Amino acid sequence: MSIALDATYSAGSQLTGVGVYCREILHGLTSAHPDQKFQWFYRPHRLLRSLETPVPRNCKRRLLLDGWPARPKLFHGLNQRLPKWRPPRSVTTFHDLFVMTGEYSSPEFRERFTQQAHEAARSSDMIITVSQFTAEQVHRLLHVGWDRLRVVHHGVKIPTSRHNEPPRERIVLHVGAIQARKNIARLIEAFRILPKDWKLVLAGSTGYGAERELSKADERVQITGFVNKHQLDNLYRRASVFVFPSLDEGFGMPVLEAMAYQVPVIASNASALPEVCGDAAILVDPLNTDQIAVELDRLVGEPQHAEKLRLRGLERARQFTWGTAVAKTWDVYCELGC
Fold first, then answer.
1. pTM higher than 0.70, yes or no?
2. 269 exposed, middle or buried (CB, 10 Å; 0-12, 13-18, 19+)?
């Protein structure tokens, strides 16, 4: 049986967290099941960009159109939506529902997202969520029974260590799009407690509400814009602290990345982040700027505390692998008779 997946969000070089997930699942499945035939479907606006990279030998590239005649028997929508045509079996991955629960986007986008989410939830034989937190939201907001929900966590790759690794710099790092739900304004305010020779680096493109979030940024705040894989690797290796006070996350991939690079983490105690961090990070109330500042000051001032978090973080990151995510995704297909 041919298995089809929506590969749209894996195309291009500037991948978001969803894009990384799509890439890892797509390539992981084709590698783990070399005798299986796969079809990677791309929506029209991304098809040309996808041609920049070859597809595996057991895979064919397809254009995703509403009237596509060669309908596969199983289709996996990797980002919370399905095509209008319906295959006999369908799976959808839901990453988050923050658009529906907070003022984090325009009303027009919220309306369109909500409609697509409800349609995908109704049409899916099985739904994969990237965290238990997101599963509970899909159950509550989209009225999906637990019998159709399966939790498959993201993975992370542990970087190789280098000989003569340079010492950490006085950098507090945040990775992710600069937007309202990322709580950047409070992070900037909390950062001011640190000595003047410390720098806050915000690595990520700008999004909804960025101007307001950055309104109090000064010369100690470095805004990089989107960073490529090499640049991000460099930042993780240089940073001394990673802070992620997000108001709402369906998973929170950057905290695992920071842990994999042995950067001590301060993260929000909200949404999916406690589920991902376990006891390997300092968890704070994202609405309490003073608490963020106190924990940041403590982490910077107590090297032994920071060292314990580095070790815990690395051990925690090792528990999340893309191989496991791929295997659990395949198990969902098997439940549907693949």
1. yes
2. middle
Count CB atoms within 10 A of the CB of residue 151.
16
Cβ–Cβ < 8 Å for 209, 185: no
Evaluate whether 280 touches 258 at the Cβ level (below 8 Å).
Answer: no
User: Would you say 328 and 152 are in contact if contact means Cβ atoms under 8 Å apart?
Assistant: yes
Task: Collapse the DSSP code of 39 into the 3-class scheme (helix H, G, I; strand E, B; otherwise coil) and give the result.
Answer: strand
pLDDT attached to residue 69: 53
What kind and span of H or E run contains 5?
strand 3-6
Give Cβ neighbours of residue 304 (< 8 Å, ≥ 6 apart): none
Instruction: Report the number of secondary-structure helices (H) and strands (E) in the chain.
Output: 13, 13
Q: In the numeric block, which tokens belong to residue 278?
A: 């376990």
Place of tokens 């314990």: 308
Mean pLDDT in order along the chain per 10 residues (338 residues): 89 84 97 94 80 88 71 90 87 96 87 94 97 98 97 96 86 95 97 97 91 93 94 96 97 98 98 98 98 97 95 98 98 92
Say how far apart CA 226 and CA 128 lie, in whole Å. Answer: 28
Quote the CA–CA distance of 26 and 228 in Å, as a whole number: 20
Q: Residue 174 corresponds to which tokens in the numbers above?
A: 């945040």
Q: How far apart are CA 213 and CA 180, in angstroms?
A: 6
DSSP string for residues in 198-243: -EEEEEB-B-TTHHHHTTT--TTEEEEES--HHHHHHHHHH-SEEE
**Interstrand relation of 3-6 and 221-225 (parallel, antiparallel or unpaired):** unpaired
Q: Give Cβ neighbours of residue 126 (< 8 Å, ≥ 6 apart).
A: 90, 91, 92, 148, 149, 150, 332, 335, 336
- List the one residue out of 141, 119, 96 whose CA is nearest residue 248: 96
